[in-house]
Every structure is written in C-alpha cells, then in structure tokens.
Amino acid sequence: MPRRLRDLQRSSALAGEQPSCVRRPSPDARRIPTRRRHTQALAGAIVAVATVAGLMLLPSAAQAGGARLDRTERKVVKFVNRYRAKHGRPRVHVSRRLNRVADRHSREMARHNFFAHASRNGTAAATRVRRSTNARAVGENLAFVSSRRSAARRVVNMWIRSDGHRAVLLSGSFRRIGVGRRSGRLGGSWGHHFTADFASRH
Fold first, then answer.
1. How many Å is the maximal CA-CA distance in the chain?
2. Do strands 8-15 and 93-94 pair parallel, antiparallel, or not at all (unpaired)?
3. C-alpha R_g of the chain
4. d(CA 57, CA 97)
5. What are the backbone dihedrals phi and psi of residue 15, each rounded to the nearest 5 degrees, phi first?
C-alpha cells in the first residue's frame, strides 16, 4: 500500500495542574495544515487525537440534537467503561448536558475544518465544559477518523495507547461523560470528529 494511504496518527496533550490553568498546545498540535503536500499525506485512514487531562476547577449537553447518543457514540461509552472496569475504576454515566457540549464542539470542528480543544472563538475547553457542569474536575479527549467502520473501538484504542488520553480515561475523579460525533472535513480529508467530555460528580 502506498505510504500516503497508510494510517496516520497525530496526537497532542495539554494539562492543567493548577485551578483553571491550561498550557496551550502549539499551533501544529491544535490544527492540521491544509497545504497540498499535507493534504496528500492525509489521504488514507486518518487518525488525530488530543486531550485535556484532569483539569481541576473550582465549582462556579446525538447527531441530531446533541442530547441523545447514536449507536457509535454509545459504543464509545461502552468501551470507555469496559476499560475503566478492567482497571478498577467506577463507571462513568452519560450526561445529557455533557452530550450537548461534546456534540456542539464536534459540530463546530466539522463545520469549520479545524481540530482543537479551544472553540473557534477562543473559549478554552475547560471553560466550555465547566459552564454546563459546575464540576471540580473536567477532561476532554478528541479524535478524528476517516472511516466510521469500527470507529468507536479505534478511537478508544488510540486513547488507551496515549499516556495523556489514558490518564483521562482512568481518572478516578470522573463520574460523568458526554460524547459527540460529527462528520466533516479536516484539512483535505472527510471523516468523523469525536469529542468525549468528562466531569466529576460535583
């Protein structure tokens, strides 16, 4: 198989150790270039992942409507909980509010052809999730895959293989999850944007 059609994975991680403190990733980590030579390199099965890991904050939302999960999104939750159980972590329960938040972010990335934790208007991921949860701890994993086939399993397996993403999946602080999947472009390729938002109970 030609090299440009092989799977390509890009990953980045950012974490905040102090309340509401987030280190911004570099532009290359947040956005995938759209110039011709990069577009050609992304022509095959594309995978891109990023994470906001365990952001501790002081207390202060399916494809159609954002609150209900579709089959693929439900599978993401199932695989996340299966992995957590394997490591003795409690289950995370689906939150409609977090579903809406995750869905809106995936929709925005798909519509405007970008890949980043920050919203298009610059709103930080921690701020975006916090508005709907008032949680002390929040986290976010992102992914982009070019094919819907076995997408949920592929996405979760990618997160498991990355230290930063795995830390989010296994955080004992998290009790709630929301997942959003939207189809759209990333660079010159068509695929599926995934956002998984996590939050503590309080």
1. 52
2. unpaired
3. 16
4. 18
5. -140, 150
- Nearest CA to 139 among 26, 28, 47, 13? 13
DSSP assigned state of 26: P
Query: What is this structure's pTM?
Result: 0.73
Q: What is the pLDDT of residue 33?
A: 38
CA distance 201 to 41: 42
C-alpha triplet 96, 190, 199: angle, nearest 5°: 25
User: What single-letter amino acid sits at 146?
Assistant: S
Q: Going edge to edge, which strands form the sheet with 174-186?
A: 8-15, 46-56, 137-145, 189-200, 174-186, 93-94
Cα–Cα distance for residue pair 61/51, rounded to 1 Å: 19
Question: Cβ neighbours of residue 149 under 8 Å, at least 6 residues apart?
Answer: none
**Strand ranges for 70-188 from DSSP E:** 93-94, 137-145, 174-186
C-beta atoms surrounding 96 within 10 Å:
16
Using alpha carbons, select from 72, 106, 103, 78 the residue that is nearest to residue 92.
78
pLDDT tens for 163-184 read: 999 999 999 999 999 999 999 9
Q: Output the six-digit token pair for 12.
A: 């980045």
